Amino acid sequence: MPKVEVLKVKDVKATQASHMDTGAYDKYMLGNVHLGGRPTESLAVVVSVFEPGKGSGMHKHDVEEAFFILRGRGKAVIGDKEYKLEPDTLLYAPVNVPHDFTNTGDESLVLLATFSKCTYSCERL
Questions:
Q1: What is the domain range of residue 115?
Q2: What is the pLDDT of residues 66-90, one digit of tens each?
Q3: Going edge to edge, which strands form the sheet with 90-93?
């Protein structure tokens, strides 16, 4: 049974997903235990960081995702549409819809991603 925890982003180890540029990384806070996240029943939460000019690479998952922009500026492509990224913006990607995030600013782009389950597949496109 998962337990109640308080986590700080600075205390979580960064990992680089195979679909991401060098200079972009994830910190798995909850779920995805094999990538360092804490155990949960059915939720995954990840903080993704993209340095200036870096991106996630176009990819898709077998889960739905929501993304909340915490800091920085950039662009996202979700499906066949492009979106402006700025703080306090929420984006959603349905199951198997390709998406990509790119930092177009001069500071780190930081987003909080939530997934609908803890184990998922990711396919770079």
A1: 14-119
A2: 999 999 999 999 999 999 999 999 9
A3: 24-30, 44-50, 109-115, 65-71, 90-93
Q: Does some domain include residue 99?
A: yes
The pTM of the full predicted model, rounded to 2 decimals, is 0.88
What's the confidence (pLDDT) of residue 86? Answer: 98
* Residue 36 domain flag: yes
Structurally, the chain folds into a number of domains equal to 1
**What is the reported pLDDT for 118?**
56
Q: Give CA 112 to chain center in angstroms.
A: 6
* CATH number of the domain encompassing residue 100: 2.60.120.10
